[in-house]
Amino acid sequence: MHDTAPPQQGPLAGFTVGVTAARRADELIALLQRRGAAVQHAPALRIVPLADDSELLSATRGLVGHPPDIVIATTAIGFRGWIEAADGWGLGESLVERLRGAELLARGPKVKGAIRAAGLTEKWSPASESMAEVLDRLLAQGVEGRRVAIQLHGEPLPGFVEALRAAGAEVVGVPVYRWMPPEDIGPLDRLLDATLARSVDALTFTSAPAAASLLARADARGLRAGLLGALGHEVLAVCVGPVTALPLQAQGVATLQPERFRLGPLVQVLCQELPSRAAVLPVAGHRFQIRGQAVLVDDTLCPVPPAGMSMLRALARRPGWVVSRAELLKALPGAGRDEHAVETAMTRLRTALGSPRLIQTVVKRGYRLAVDQAADTKYSGA
Questions:
Q1: What is the pTM of this model?
Q2: Which of 28, 89, 322, 357 is least buried, going by the fewest C-beta atoms within 10 A?
Q3: Domain ranges for the chain
Q4: Smallest Cα–Cα separation from 148: which of 72, 74, 62, 94?
Q5: pLDDT tens digit string along 12-59?
Q6: Percent of the chain residues topping a pLDDT of 90
Q7: Mean predicted confidence (pLDDT) in 264-285
Q8: Burial class (CB in 10 A: 0-12, 13-18, 19+), 249
Q9: CATH (residue range 48-179)
């Protein structure tokens, strides 16, 4: 896992985003960083090729001996891995010849590239890159009595195989690689802890197995209820598409997905959603916005320590009202019963914000966020 410090500008400045991807993680992290986010990366799984796997060898031999009528290629890495494995077994030419004689469907443009690199040409590819559109096409044209091979890619295809078989097709699954838990579980545990502590503002998922892996790790540590509680409220779950979201939605977690199932649109969802959840307050003549682990004061991003952020959120839940030291003490993680901890954290918070006037001391009562009295604004994002 590699974490990044928060940059000072961009729509995601002040927010921390967890990345669970193993494949193409660097691309996603770069997109997030360019928009100002701090990133906590913890691969939730690893991809294990099945070049020496008996299931893949058996499926390949079966298709060479009994050619398919239709072949569905779902991922570029999987399709390339299949051809490479077949070459290693001395079946490459025979497999390509069988694929050339079949109706070859590609789920998306990257798969089309892999197909053409193998000297083949796809017959059709869905504009939506959705397996649902592939299924609709096949059912509309009729599959009764036809032999359909589908390259499996580790993610659940709910109802896909069942629907084809119900329509009379013979379906052959081609398992090209498997998802496995990460070899080093430490980064995933740290991301899970950060999620429960609300020190990340969003988690991103680019595959259903990654979401399932995070849930399984939470189960193993007895933390599922806490994880679901965080994802149900303060921590946003953003998935690259509806299939990826299925394990989370099955647990009642509301997720967001872009209209186009791509990393760029996924990042744009975050750029729109996270800032919109952080309402703006007029405080002591300044524009004041709490953003995850920092505060935007006018156009200046002020990183705030975790203790200070906890107190600031408690103050912002009742903007302009006095919050007692006892209440603020409850908001401080691990502070015990010493109200002196509130004063220490308050001093550090004011220093981080760059102005003591933003938070007022009300003698013998507590503290209040110095919301401008003329403004009729209600804060709802803390």
A1: 0.69
A2: 357
A3: 16-45+182-277, 48-179, 280-369
A4: 72
A5: 988 999 999 887 789 999 999 999 899 999 999 887 766 557 888 999
A6: 44
A7: 88
A8: middle
A9: 3.40.50.10090
Rounded distance, CA 341 to CA 13, Å?
29
Q: Which residues pair with 72 in a beta bridge?
A: 105, 150
The count of C-alpha atoms lying within 13 angstroms of the C-alpha of 304, restricted to the half-sphere facing its C-beta, is 30
Sort strands 16-19 and 38-41 into parallel, antiparallel or unpaired: parallel
Q: Which two tokens stand for residue 4?
A: 């990044």
280-369: CATH, from 1.10.287.610, 3.90.1150.10, 1.10.10.10, 3.30.9.10? 1.10.10.10
Topology agreement, domain 48-179 and domain 280-369? no
Q: Which CATH architecture has domain 16-45+182-277?
A: 3-Layer(aba) Sandwich (3.40)
pLDDT tens figures, 360-381: 888 888 888 888 765 444 443 4
Give the H/E segment covering residue 202. Answer: strand 202-205
The residues with which 237 forms a beta bridge, in sequence order, are 203
Provide the token pair at 332: 């401080």
> What is the Cα–Cα distance from 139 to 44, expressed in whole angstroms?
35
| CB 350, CB 304: distance < 8 Å | no
3 state SS for the chain: CCECCCCCCCCCCCCEEEECCCCCHHHHHHHHHHCCCEEEECCCCEEEECCCCHHHHHHHHHHHHCCCCEEEECCHHHHHHHHHHHHHCCCHHHHHHHHHCCEEEECCHHHHHHHHHCCCCCCECCCCCCHHHHHHHHHHHCCCCCEEEEEECCCCCCCHHHHHHHCCCEEEEEECEEEECCCCCHHHHHHHHHHHCCCCCEEEECCHHHHHHHHHHHHHCCCHHHHHHHHHCCCEEEECCHHHHHHHHCCCCCCECCCCCCHHHHHHHHHHHHHHHCCEEEECCEEEEEECCEEEECCEEEECCHHHHHHHHHHHCCCCCCECHHHHHHHCCCCCCCCHHHHHHHHHHHHHHCCHHHEEEECCCEEEECECCCCCCCCCCC
Alpha carbons 83 and 370: distance in angstroms, whole number: 66
